[in-house]
Amino acid sequence: MRCYKSTCLRLKILSNRLNFWKSPQKVGGAVDIMAPEVDVPTLGAWFQEADLNSTVIIEDVEKLIIQREHKEDPFSRLLHDQSDQNEPRYNFHSYGSYPQMVSWMRALSRKYPEIVQFISVGRTHEGRSIDGLEIGGGNRRKRVFWIDGGIHAREWAAPHTALYFIHQLTSKYGRDPNITNYVNEITWVIVPSLNPDGYEFTRSSTNPNVRLWRKNRAPSTCVRDQWGRNRCCKGVDLNRNFDFHFKETGSSDDPCSEIYQGKTPFSEPESRAVRDAILSNRYRGRIDGFITLHTYSQIWIHPYGHRRDSYPGDIQDLYQVGKRATNALSKLYGTKYIVGSGADTLYPASGGSEDWAKQTGAIKYVYLLELRPDERNWDGFILDENQLIPTASETWAGVKVVADAIIQRSKNKVLRRKTVSATVRRAHVTTRCTRAKSGSKSKSRCARPSPGS
Question: Which keywords has UniProt assigned to this entry (predicted)?
Fold first, then answer.
């Protein structure tokens, strides 16, 4: 159901108890809400009483899920089952399982050991390893580009897009001069699914309450409601669990809310995994790019998201690189993206990974990407599989612009160091003077030795 807001006051009636696909944004904008069929008449009457316009845009969400994402695909299974060390293969025309993702990444690390290293950044509540690849590593002086996806379980296109980036970097290395340069100049750390527990849970059923699950699968937390009843619910919104203005805005203390931030910052093993990797001896101080992939709305988001009109000191640079990236992205299929902070373009929300990465991680180019479809599209998270490769390929075009900025920044740093070093050497060149007598007067004769003398 899509509801159109008309006044700020009426925003307050949109309760955390509803399943939001798109959260409340600006006055006059649309909010996408999923509700059980039996509740639709009640909600419709509720909205009408509050003078809110609403339209049913998906009559049967489960039917759409089956049509879009659960097609019989024997080739997909064959592709995975028969893949081996010599020919790593992955079917990018469909949504894969987390074990399929991991199997493919392991195969790539065996196929290309000179540029690919299989990594694990942590473990989940259910014991799954949070796996990824380091591409182009080995040289600790190289700058690092961190990319992750799938922090929200239901956003299936995000892990797929991250996997596509891996495919581009590995399959074209040594063949495409631009890709070869990206791998030679940058260490890429790509973790396709930060929330594999949640992702696999969403794959376990076509029930919309399962498929559209957002949080991780943390054990149940219980609270007493206003009537004194115990309410217990699983999961934490991982993108509200980072230590950046924790619990301030756009999150909830209600464990049954989709935006429950958890009891404390970094209470979850998945968010701790990101923190520990970025602050590790291996990567700390080397990361110049951070992109976290989400869906949906087609927005290229820069920090900060906790409050409107709040930006880091280098906002002009962040914004300009974002604009160049979205311009490159749109050249493929004409897809239009908005560039701005999350608070300005969507809604204020604190505790996000991108804001923490910018402030605490001290990373230069930090973005959260809301991929296809745009906010006018009605299918939201249930993106048709025929949109997967266009989504991934256009996003890759934008990501390459950020990679170019990282490389250029690194070169500029090297140039500045050389300039400073040369200046220092010149400053230490001394002037050697001797005095020679000529008659009754002394004359000075000075000679400037070369730096090597």
Answer: Carboxypeptidase, Disulfide bond, Hydrolase, Metal-binding, Metalloprotease, Protease, Signal, Zinc
- Cα–Cα distance for residue pair 163/190, rounded to 1 Å: 8
**DSSP letter string over 236-259?**
--GGG-SSSSTTSSS-BS-TTSTT
Tell me how far apart the alpha carbons of residues 301 and 299 are, in angstroms, rounded to a whole number: 6
- C-alpha torsion sign, points 236, 238, 239, 241: positive
Domains plus CATH for the chain?
Answer: 5-61 (3.30.70.340), 96-409 (3.40.630.10)
Nearest to 379 by CA among 29, 96, 91, 59: 59
C-alpha R_g of the chain: 27
Mean pLDDT of residues grouped by 10 in the chain (453 residues)?
45 52 60 73 74 78 81 44 60 96 98 98 99 93 98 98 98 97 98 99 95 97 85 97 97 94 98 99 97 97 97 98 99 97 95 99 99 80 94 99 98 82 64 51 52 44
Q: So which residues are the catalytic ones?
A: 370
Enter the pTM of the model: 0.82
242-318-369 Cα angle (round to 5): 55
Containing 277, the helix (H) or strand (E) segment is: helix 269-278
Could you tell me the two tokens for 109?
A: 């690390």
Judging by DSSP bridges, how do beta strands 432-438 and 230-233 pair with one another? unpaired
How far does Cα 133 stand from its chain's mean position?
Answer: 15
How many Cα atoms within 13 Å fall on the side-chain side of residue 200?
18
C-alpha distances out from residue 370 to 208, 299, 360, Å? 21, 5, 22
